[in-house]
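Blinded run. Sample ID left blank on purpose so nobody reads anything into the name before looking at the predicted structure. Input follows.
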Amino acid sequence: MSDYLSLKRYWITLTAICVLLMVLIGGYTRLTNSGLSITEWKPVTGTFPPFSEENWETELEKYKASPEYNKINYGISMPEFKRIYLIEYFHRLFGRITGFVLLVPALFFMYKKQFNSNETKFLITTLALGMLQALVGWIMVASGLIDNPHVSHYKLALHLSMATILFSYIIWSGMQFYYKKVQINFTNLNHLIVVSAILLLFTQIIWGAFVAGLDAGMIYNTFPLMNESFFPSETLSYTPKLVNFTENHGWVQFTHRILGYVVYMYLFSLYFKILKNNKNFRTNGKIIMILLNLQLILGILTVVYQVPLVMALLHQLNALILLGSVIVLLHKICDLQHYTLGVVHD
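Blinded prediction complete.
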């Protein structure tokens, strides 16, 4: 039994890593403007790339019918097309690999009769979220293949949100393979404090997607001020006014900055007022603080240097790792309900 438990731990950890890598590859695909290079969605037959020159010519002809070719990449050479095509192809392929990593070990555990009802529920839910994520991804891509070679930043945010939910669910549910299964008690103040941190991080990730989708990181490349001002120079010209914070480039970046300050101060306070002096959660707190400060540094460097590829990808990746570390903290707090945050000391 213990051997199977160890295997399940490897399985769930590898699945979570695959989802993280999927997000990283997705970010690379977007930043290299490769996402609209494959104009069809073939979940089964699309597993293999073009092999012959004739197949490549066929794919290029399909791409030539797209608005991106006619409005942005007109006259693209075959080597250039192959580059963006293979980036998007690998993004889709890795989605299939992730599904394989999730499903095949689960079938093995079922065959060995080492899969209980909770684990079956986890598998079904994860598969459903994964398939929904793939569908949202295709809807997002398809929207850029009609007239305007541009993907709505709302759809991009939805796509990233789905990936974040999937990753969060795997982390939370996967903790049962390391510790006992727990439940969040929404009448427990300790639980609510950490749940609030998770919601703040999730909201910040969504606004990060807005910034990315609008290329809002390419403006106001100064810190801490936005071109010598705390506020962006754009007026709140959109109606209704709240739309400015999701569509007006300057105000979207401003909102992302402010949310970053809020998240930082919230987690900073959580650590120094609660976690630092509590022996049960001190290690979790130190990990969160390291990731939090790294995220702040990566965010500043990303905007100051106008979204360099590696920096932007690390910023996105670290955001999910930070979120995962707070989810682990929440699970531990739920597992130690007889402890009170900030009271148990050495």
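Unblinding after everyone has recorded impressions. The mean pLDDT is 91.
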